[in-house]
């Protein structure tokens, strides 16, 4: 255990559709492990601290960070056993917008292997770890409204009328962050990036009675013009997590299940089958934090942004939560330095790095939808040269996923 430069840290996070506070929870765990005298107050906007959510992919790099935090054995228990074989394919990319879909690229587990898991399982592990720290207080039903920063600390005001103080406030409050709204009033609203995302879980047994060629041991990206579908097994293979990305103008109205199926009319049969078996697709319009922020630290250096509040990105590389894990670990470690040095070191270490991944995610999405400038001529039928171009774009995007986490403590 080392000594933190501050005596108390407040973390705000809460409930937003099917995601819940991975960044805030990892930070609470990491701080508790490092600093035994640090008061950690976690404020959650929803009424209960609970678990909710669908599938999540975690790459070797964030998995190695969670292992450094002593959570490796527990993580092994919740990742899909289908990904154990080191020699097999980890990720396959298919051109699927015709009846005869075909594989255009893949990489093996030896290079990089996504651990697929249920968000609920991960949240349970993190909540268990948080609850073991007597210095960590979790307050539900506390939605942050505004904060006030002085030389002595930060006062938080909640929409319920109450207030609280801390030496440092961490805004891990997601894409519609109240903390970011106050730090950057002009960038309070995230940007809609033109995708409706339709997600659902399929019980493996529901699909087993059907004739199909779905590769159940890997993550598959079914690419096509202006839309794509991603599928991977979660919950130790009990479920398939299916996510369809459809380019559509912003609207409050979601497509019905039958409209979604019609949108993928003419695609290879496996895609149609997957979409048919989603019980009721959950739709969310896709937003990101753009333009990128010029800093993640307030003028007084007592408020910082972390996770999606700072860098919500397109999910095409499955990297947002992994980046949040990295933010949390780095910030926790740097808080052994005095303020403001600690938070500026965090900003310097993490901001550009996260935005690089955000840019790579955008490029990967352009490739999956076959409208990246290099691939436009390949959209109807992909030549060998087209596959090579696709491979280059995709491979450069995934480099971070297996790059060693070499942050010097
Ligand atoms: C379709 C899709 C698929 C994805 N797949 C992957 C993947 O496979 N792998 C991966 O690494 N990432 C993935 N991501 C990204 C990942 O979900 C996010 O990056 C991650 O959940 C961010 O965690 P967070 O804790 O920063 O934010 P959140 O999980 O959003 O939690 C922050 C919470 O704070 C709440 N809050 C808001 N305002 C307040 C307030 N005033 N007071 C208190 N709380 C507040 C928010 O409602 C929010 O729920 C995906 C994203 C999408 C959209």
UniProtKB/TrEMBL annotation:
Which prosthetic group or cofactor does it need? FAD
Looking up InterPro entries in the UniProt record yields: cNMP-bd_dom, FAD-bd, FAD-dep_Monooxygenase_BioMet, FAD/NAD-bd_sf
Which GO MF terms does the UniProt record name?
A: FAD binding; monooxygenase activity
Q: Which UniProt keywords apply?
A: FAD, Flavoprotein, Monooxygenase, Oxidoreductase
Matches recorded under PROSITE patterns = CNMP_BINDING_3
Q: Which residues form the Cyclic nucleotide-binding domain?
A: 15-68
Which family is annotated?
Belongs to the paxM FAD-dependent monooxygenase family.
**Protein name per UniProt:** FAD/NAD(P)-binding domain-containing protein
Its source organism is Cylindrobasidium torrendii FP15055 ss-10
